[in-house]
Design a protein that fits this description.
Length: about 160
Amino acid sequence: MGRPEATLEEIMSRPVVSVPRATPLAKVAALMAKGRLSAVLVTHRGKPVGLVSETDLLGVLHQGGGGRATAASAMSSPLLTAAPSVNWTAALLSMRSHGVHHLLVMGAQGEPLGIVTATDLRASAGDHLMRRMDDVRSAFDATVPELGPEARVSDAVELMSNT
């Protein structure tokens, strides 16, 4: 993880936890809390139709609709999906351009394989940046050549050409 070519398959959380559209929102919230999940997939007749995220839950509760709300009434839809082979930078750009924080990773047969969050991608980006910084640091010599105040320009040129 953290390499520019790291794929969603390496980053995604799995297995995908899903609920039918009619699931009461209280049950969805309990499931998310128990599993420490930031989102749950919502299905209809076995097919992915949306995601309920923590933000979606808070929005419904804030509007006072939590009592009879279902996964269908709280979910974000349409889903943003990607193949497991997509690299994390492309996924991040796609998520930003669509204004979403969760991406569903789908297999070749349309089956949900995992979920990638913006937090997952930021962690991967952080790993990548730290490695890049290490690469840059290793390119520099840790010793700094020094000259006294009496040194001439020619002394500096000679010292620089020998290091």
